[in-house]
Amino acid sequence: MRTISFQADILPLKNKLFRLALRITLNPAEAEDVVQETMIKVWNRRDSWQQIDNMETFCLTICHNLAVDKMRRADSQTQTLDDSLPTHNSPLTPSPEEQVVQRDRIQLVRRLIDGLPEKQRSCMQLRDIEEKSYRDIATILGISEEQVKVNIFRARQTIRDRFRKIETEKK
Question: Of 88-92, 125-129, 148-152, which gets the smallest average pLDDT?
């Protein structure tokens, strides 16, 4: 049986936990608080680490639950992700005009994602950003795999439809 180390096995998950918390809370400061609370809860359960099959799923589940609880208490959604685009000088770097259009589209998609119901946002974050399996997502969110698939389908469909509508209105 493998020994689990906080520094080697749990601490490296902090970025994934932050991204999940940020997708739920929509506020970087709140997401940082959720990650810190998650780490404390995981540490306090260190006596039972050996019984945990998948530490990453365990941590993501705690993070998700804490973020949802925080949102329910706060009952508000205020901020989106940082809108910075990676910039590097290469022959494939888009022109300044293309960068502005691309940045605007990314902002639009983020706003559309932020407008989704929490469960759909979480499912998309875990599947499309964190690349989790349907089974892991179901475990983390405490729903069935079928519900995960339905939430992802509906979220993608909603974003696609709203994006097309907005893009069509611009023309």
Answer: 88-92
Residue bearing the bigger pLDDT, 159 or 74? 159
- Is-contact 18 31, C-beta < 8 A? yes
Residue 42: burial class (beta carbons within 10 Å; 0-12, 13-18, 19+): buried
Burial class (CB in 10 A: 0-12, 13-18, 19+), 145: middle
- Angle (CA) 63-128-136 rounded to 5° is 50
CB neighbourhood size of 105 (10 A):
13
- What are the Cα distances from residue 111, in Å, to 52, 70, 79, 159, 164? 36, 20, 9, 10, 14
Q: How many residues are recorded in the chain?
A: 171
